[in-house]
Amino acid sequence: MDWHILGSFGGSSPTCRMTSFLINGELALDAGSITQALQLDAQRRIRQIVLTHSHLDHTASIPFLVENTFGEQREALEILLPPQVLRTVKLHLFNNDTWPDFTRIPNDLLPALRLVQVEPRAAFSANTLRLTPIPVRHTVPTCGYLVEDESGSVLFTSDTGPTDEVWEVANRTANLRALIAEVSFPSRMQAVADVSLHLTPRTLAAELAKLRRDVAVHLYHFKPAYVAELRDEVAATRFPHPVAELRQGETYRF
Ligand SMILES: [Zn+2]
Ligand SMILES: [Zn+2]
């Protein structure tokens, strides 16, 4: 499967786009920067968006994507999301205050946008893929995803502090090709990372000790203010597994 890294950061600056991956040209996994990264014709090809959680760095471009593609598609754009994330998106994003409620526009029967609930730990099909939401530990309800096709699997942790289940899934998935894990703050900001349930290189090293297999580990979610410092610290840290920064703008074939 092809993963186009539209945005790989945990915040926004002219060089850092917010978290969003485009899989096989049609399915977006998180939506922080779809409309900044893709031309309009590529935006129109997106049929489904899968969300890990409600934070803006993972959802901010959805309102503009819906507007850009409004009226041009026969089928509604589908957003697949866990229960509490669905509630938040309904209440705080498409609520007729922050943005029009496109789940009822142009009308209830043929809306531009459909919110589809997915259940933690229950696999579902989307595009040609099988996805399984895996609960992780963040300040709001959040799921990582195991994304599988017939040739292999990729595990995306999403935003999380120290956790176990996602590493257990990594250890028991036979054909795991790659793992995308977060690191947000340098270790000197450990207290901030702990309270916001994110990782530093120090806690990432402890998390990677739970991974008992050889798999490529890619890092995402550097906060823009600390990118240079994090790159230096990651390069100087001895991790239990080799790691590489996930490169924004590139397409990975997993
Ligand atoms: Zn984030
Ligand atoms: Zn978050």
Task: Describe the structure using short key phrases.
single chain; 254 residues; alpha/beta; seven-stranded mixed β-sheet; 9 helices; binds zinc ion
Report a brief summary of the structure.
The protein is α/β, with parallel strands linked by helices and 254 residues long. Helices cover 25% and strands 26% of the residues.
Instruction: Give the N-to-C terminal Cα separation.
Output: 5 Å
Report the mean per-residue pLDDT as an integer: 97
Bound molecules: zinc ion
Count the DSSP helices. Answer: 9
How do the helices and strands follow one another from N- to C-terminus?
Answer: EEEHHEHHEHEEEEEHEHHEHEE
- Can you summarize the main beta sheet? 7 strands, mixed
Q: Major sheet: order of its strands?
A: 6-5-4-3-2-1-14
Helical amount: 10-25%
Total strand segments? 14
Strand content: 25-35%
Radius of gyration: 17 Å
Q: Poorly predicted ranges (pLDDT <50, ≥5 residues)?
A: none
Q: How would you describe the shape?
A: globular
Structural class: alpha/beta
Descriptive account of the structure:
This protein has about 250 residues and is α/β, with parallel strands linked by helices. It contains nine helices and 14 strands. The protein has helices at about 35, 40-45, 55-60, 60-70, 85-90, 165-170, 190-195, 200-210, 225-235; strands at about 1-5, 20-25, 25-30, 50, 75-80, 115, 125, 130-135, 145-150, 150-155, 175-180, 215-220, 245, 250-254. A hairpin with a 2-residue loop joins strand 7 and strand 8 (about 130-135). The longest helix has 10 residues, at about 85-90. It is globular and about 55 Å long. It starts with a strand and ends with a strand.
